[in-house]
Amino acid sequence: MNSMTSIANISQQGINRSVPRSGIQYYSRWRQIPMKLRFAFSLLQYAARRKEYPLFSFKSLRPIRKGKILAIHRVSVLDSYCYTTTMRVPRWPSPAFDHMISNGGLGMESDTLARKKHVDSVILAITRKCNYECEHCYEYANRADVDTIPVDTWKNVIAELQGFGVSVIILSGGEPMLRYEDLITILESADKGLSDFHLHTTGIGMSLDRAQALKKAGLVAAGVGLDYPDAVRHDRFRGRQGAYEVAVKAIDQLNRARIFTYINTCLQKDSVRNGDLWKLLDLAKNLQIGTINFLEPKSCGRYGSRKPDDLFTNEDKERMAEFASKVNRGRAYKNYPPVSYIAPAEKPENFGCLMGGLSHFTIDGAGNVNPCVFVPVSFGNILDEDFGVIYKRMRSVISRPIRTQCPSGLLCETLAQHRNGANASAVPYAAVRQTWQRLFADDP
C-alpha cells in the first residue's frame, strides 16, 4: 500500500465506527465534529508529507474556513464515504481525494489557482444517442442515431485526463445508458484510484442488475434528471411520457446498488416562484438521495434563442440562493438532503467563472473540446488531433477566471449568428475570437 492511499485508509477507519451502513446519512452541526476532526488530522498528514503533496496549501481552505461561499454546513455519508454539496470534489476519504490534494486541488482563489495542476471535473458526452426530447437539451445539435467516437478513443482520452489530474469524470450524453456495454468497458478500463466516476442519466434502461454491474465496474455516483416534483410536468419537460416514473425507479435501483445518487434539476422560474422547490425537497428526502444539484437554465442548446433574463432573472437567483442557504443551514432540515447551487460561487466578486480547465470543461458527443457544457465553443476535436494539444490551446486562451456575467449569456447571440439557424454543433474558437475578448473586458 502506498503512502498516498494510506491517508484515505486511516481516515476511513475512523468513520466506519460512527456511520451506519444502511444507506445515506446526513451530518450537520455537532454530528460533524468527529468527522471534521478526522479531516483536520488528514490535512496535517498532507502538510507533513511535503514530498508526496508538494502543492498542498492551507490557503486553499480559506473559503471553507471563512464560512463563506463554499462553507460546508452538511455532508452526506454513504458506506463510510463523505460527499460535500459540490459534485466537483471526489468522495472522502479516498485515493482519488488524496490524488486531488497532491495536484493542488481545492485551490479556487487566484493565488492558489496558479499552483493548481489539476481539473476538478470533466463532462464526457460518450454517446450522441437519446430517446428523450428535453426542453432545455444542450446537446441536441450533436444528437444522432450512430456514435462517431469509438470506445477506444474515449478510453485514451480518459487515460490522458487522469495523467494530468482530474478529480471527477462525468459520463453523460445523449443518454449514456443507450451505450451501456461501452459504458461498462470505459469504467473497467479506467484507474479508479485517480478519479471518481459519475453518470448523468435520465434513468432510462436502468435495472438493479445494471446498477450493480456499474457499481462493480467502478461507478461512484449517479445524477438522475428530475426537474419537477410531479409526473405531468416532468414528463412534459423531458418530452417523454413516463419519464418521471423511469427517473424515480432508477433512483431506487441505484440506491439499492449503493451508488451515491443525486438528482440534477434544471431550474425554472415557475418552480422558484410557486413553492415547487419545497415539494421537490420533500420528494428528494423520500427518495433518500444524497444531494439535489440545481442548475440554472442557460442560453444555449434548445434555449439558444432565449435571453438570459427571460430564462432566469436576478430575482430568481436571489430566491434560489436564499432557498439553498435555508435548507443547508436550517436546523429544521437536518434530515433532508443538502442542496448544491454553485452559481453564487461563480459570481465575479467571488471566484468568477472557472471554465476551460480552471475547474471544469466538457467534450461533447461530436468530439469537440468545449470550455463548458453551456459554452459550445470548440478548441479542437479529439477525432482530428491529440487531446493534449487541444487542451493546451484552450488553457492558453483561458488562463484566469472570467469575471463578467456568465459567458453563455455574453456569447449566445454571436454563436446563434455563426450557426445561421443550422442544426450545427460547436462553433470553432477562431470564428468568435474577437467577441471572446468581451469575456475578459471587466477583469480587474
Task: Summarize the helices and strands and which ones pair or pack.
Blueprint: H1 3-16, E1 25-28, H2 33-48, H3 62-65, E2 74-78, E3 81-83, H4 95-102, H5 110-113, E4 119-125, H6 151-164, E5 166-172, H7 180-189, E6 196-201, H8 208-217, E7 219-225, H9 231-238, H10 243-256, E8 260-266, H11 269-274, H12 276-287, E9 292-295, H13 308-311, H14 314-329, E10 339-340, E11 360-363, E12 369-370, E13 377-378, H15 387-397, H16 407-419, E14 427-428, H17 433-436
Parallel strand pairs: 4-5, 4-11, 5-6, 6-7, 7-8, 8-9, 9-10, 13-14
Antiparallel strand pairs: 1-2, 2-3, 11-12
Helix pairs in contact: 1-2, 1-4, 6-7
What does this structure look like?
The longest helix has 16 residues, at 33-48. It is built from 17 helices and 14 strands. It is α/β, with parallel strands linked by helices and 444 residues long. Strand 4 (119-125), helix 6 and strand 5 form a beta-alpha-beta unit. The chain is globular, with a radius of gyration of 21 Å.
